[in-house]
Design goal:
Strand content: 5-15%
Number of helices: 29
Structural class: alpha/beta
Number of strands: 23
Radius of gyration: 27 Å
Strand order of the largest sheet: 5-6-4-7-8-3-11
Largest sheet: 7 strands, parallel
Shape: globular
Helix content: 40-55%
């Protein structure tokens, strides 16, 4: 018997999974995963070949000892096996191997760069491995309208996704049958669409007969009417307060029903604002149908192979019908070479992608992002909906040249807007007077102005400024702070408290926040202050002012403190200052001019040189591209904080091990720390590594009920006070 896996917890006689059974199980799954883009035979071939290397006699000895099946075996060393299937593919399926050899070779460690791939393929097929008998022809899928430079690396990566997820799932079914049984218990798209219709009808029945609510109904009706349009690129441009989130999900579900799409994937700029969107969708569709996915740890950085395997089995593969994630998670996965990141990709096929607040996409990565989305619509059956209150200029063959005149952003030529211009939403939804004063002011004078307002929101550009400004306010239990130093559970609770105060009391409410509140957070205040930023951010902030139109006009004040922001924030500020002070700030024409000014300040739209690394057919540098394609420059590390029941969850993790449900719960109690802050707290002995790569700050005093995680040691502060 050739063994693939050993599980000593199973009954006697059932403890070994044969390699034949495993390969057949993986082949069936990989074939079904790759069939939607016409590559079912390639998926099956990968599954049948991927573990042929386990037939090596030395590998069989290794697995018997390492698994504990025959612990007394001696003289055993680890034996590589993944390369064998790649060699067999190249020998017996030369044409197909151009697409499947790298996925087979990398199904444990990741897709290889060209040089490493060529080096591995110079090895010989080991003695003891039988020739494959797959019964499959040496053919490859002919792509529809292929563009080799922009499509082929995605096709190889997609096949890789099909293989690794099939491998994970079949292994999980044998090794962790309880976890496997928890998967795929979801409602269908038709049920979800019906549930959303009921929810929207209830909202309508309970809503005031206001102009704002009438406009929201008009937007929803446009989305219903246009849901049956052919798959492709669409935009939903609605000023803040117009109900973009629910309208976009409505269009996506109806579009999915009309065209047989399998799921809805919503990508949001910031981890912290996923909380409200996911919470609303869970209320509508049920907890079991909505996956909120933002990474807790880097699974592939774990050195302990047993722990790494358990973590990978617990990783999300996006098989739920509704996914709420971040731009970082979505697009870095599309460019990843690692199994744990790529396994979800095949579940993006034949889906509807909603890119919320598309103007927040990082400009220096726009070209590979646009190219990737183009491939996913043409090759993998996706439809894409851009939603924003301030649509950037992403359409056109050549949109704009950056500061380097050789660098041009080549956009999308086929984006269809769902909202007719004759609805004049930007005029009808104007509920705010915008006051722009860019003369430098002291932060203390802003704090004084805020203290004189009974209900006010102030949005600033950095966590440091938010913390300083909050501390300047007179002490009041109804002063609130929001930043990404607060874990998602804390943010959700604080936002709930804010909404309750605003809707049920007449208490003063003052909120100091970073820009996380500008998108996807539905609150309504009569007055908003916004630190100088780009026009899109300013209008987003203004969207929190008089949101429901209960006042004739609210007031939004733009102020400057002379603070010098970094990177794109500087370009956005400078682009804003280039506009005529007498501009109609709310018009789409002004927004287009703003974004053209903004893009002209960008040196390159492909900072990572993805075009050079991945656009040479079959000379792909997957690992290098993945290493360079990071949408956020600041390297951050996830830490679990001591908040609410996180301590009991950490204890459960240590005692019972890792499960998808537990990792999801712990994600609600994590904060992303910059590397320098992490090192400082770790150096003070405040961070425990509870499992390799999983960090916890157990001291409750290090987490403030108002401000979140303190990035300076509270012990040092207490010593200084004494």
């Amino acid at each position: 018997m050739i063994i693939s896996h050993v599980n000593l917890q199973r009954p006697a006689g059932e403890q070994c999974q044969t390699n034949e059974d495993h390969q057949e199980g993986v082949a069936k799954l990989a074939s079904s995963f790759s069939a939607p883009f016409g590559c079912g035979n390639l998926g099956r071939l990968m599954g049948l070949l991927h573990d042929k290397g386990k037939e090596q006699p030395d590998f069989q000895k290794y697995i018997r000892k390492a698994s504990g099946l025959e612990p007394d075996l001696t003289g055993i060393k680890h034996v590589e096996h993944a390369y064998v299937g790649a060699l067999l593919a190249a020998k017996y399926y030369q044409t197909a191997s151009m697409l499947i050899a790298n996925p087979i070779l990398g199904h444990h460690a990741g897709l290889k760069d060209k040089a490493d791939f060529d080096r591995a393929m110079k090895k010989s097929i080991p003695v003891g491995v039988s020739a494959p008998d797959t019964g499959l022809p040496d053919t490859t899928k002919k792509l529809n309208n292929p563009s080799p430079k922009k499509d082929l690396h995605h096709l190889v990566r997609m096949l890789f996704s099909c293989l690794v997820d099939a491998d994970f799932l079949d292994t999980e079914k044998f090794m962790s049958p309880e976890a496997s049984a928890q998967r795929s218990r979801y409602s269908g798209i038709h049920e979800l669409a019906s549930g959303l219709d009921d929810y929207l009808q209830t909202l309508k029945n309970n809503a005031d007969n206001s102009e704002v609510n009438r406009i929201r109904e008009e937007v929803q009706e446009q989305c219903r009417q246009k849901a049956a349009l052919p798959p492709g690129f669409y935009s939903l441009t609605v000023p803040t307060g117009g109900g973009k989130t629910l309208s976009s999900v409505l269009w996506a579900l109806k579009h999915a029903l009309a065209h047989g799409k399998q799921r809805i994937i919503i990508a949001i700029p910031y981890t912290s604002i996923i909380t409200q969107t996911a919470s609303t969708l869970r209320k509508i569709f049920g907890d079991e149908n909505v996956v909120e996915h933002h990474s807790l740890i880097d699974y592939d950085s774990i050195k302990d192979s047993n722990l790494r395997s358990r973590l990978k089995l617990a990783a999300e593969n996006w098989d739920a019908p509704v996914i709420v994630t971040t731009n970082v998670q979505l697009f870095e996965s599309m460019m990843s070479n690692k199994p744990s990141s790529c396994r979800k990709l095949h579940n993006i096929c034949n889906s509807v992608l909603i890119l919320d607040e598309v103007q927040a996409l990082p400009p220096e990565f726009l070209q590979p992002i646009i190219d990737s989305l183009s491939t996913y619509t043409r090759i993998f059956g996706c439809s894409v909906l851009f939603t924003t209150a301030s649509q950037p200029a992403l359409c056109g063959e050549t949109i704009v040249k950056g500061t380097d005149r050789k660098s041009s952003l080549h956009g999308l030529t086929n984006v269809q807007e769902l909202i007719p211009r004759n609805l004049e939403l930007e005029k009808r939804l104007r509920r705010v007077n915008l006051h722009v004063d860019l003369e430098q002011q002291e932060l203390s004078s802003i704090a004084e102005a805020l203290s004189g307002k009974p209900r006010v929101l102030c949005i600033v550009n950095t966590r440091k400024t938010a913390c300083e400004l909050f501390k300047m306010l007179p002490e009041d239990e109804n002063n609130y702070h929001l930043s990404r130093l607060m874990c998602p559970a804390h943010l959700r609770k604080t936002l709930g408290n804010i909404k309750s105060e605003l809707s049920t009391t007449n208490h003063d409410v003052r909120i100091i926040s970073t820009q996380l509140i500008e998108a996807g957070v539905d609150i309504d205040l009569p007055c908003v202050y916004r630190q100088e930023a780009g026009l899109d951010s300013i209008l987003q902030a203004a969207g929190r002012c008089n949101r429901e139109g209960r006042l004739e006009r609210g007031d939004t004040y733009v102020f400057s403190t002379g603070e010098v922001p970094r990177g794109s924030m500087t370009w956005a500020k400078d682009a804003m200052r280039e506009l005529d002070p007498d501009e109609d700030w709310w018009s789409q024409e002004t927004m287009t001019r703003y974004f053209r000014q903004f893009y002209r300040r960008i040196h390159t739209f492909d900072k990572a040189n993805i075009g050079e690394l991945l656009e040479q057919p079959f000379n792909f540098n997957f690992e290098e591209a993945a290493r360079k394609f990071h949408l956020i420059d600041d390297k951050s590390i996830s830490v679990i904080v001591n908040y609410e029941d996180s301590v009991s969850l950490v204890r459960k993790l240590q005692e019972e091990g890792i499960t998808p449900a537990l990792m999801r719960k712990l994600g609600q109690y994590t904060v992303q720390l910059r590397e320098n802050d992490f090192k400082e707290l770790d150096g003070k002995g405040l961070i425990d590594e509870i499992l390799e790569g999983i960090y916890f700050i157990p001291d409750p005093s290090q987490y403030d009920e108002k401000l979140g995680l303190m990035t300076e040691s509270h012990w040092m502060e207490e010593l200084l006070i004494e």
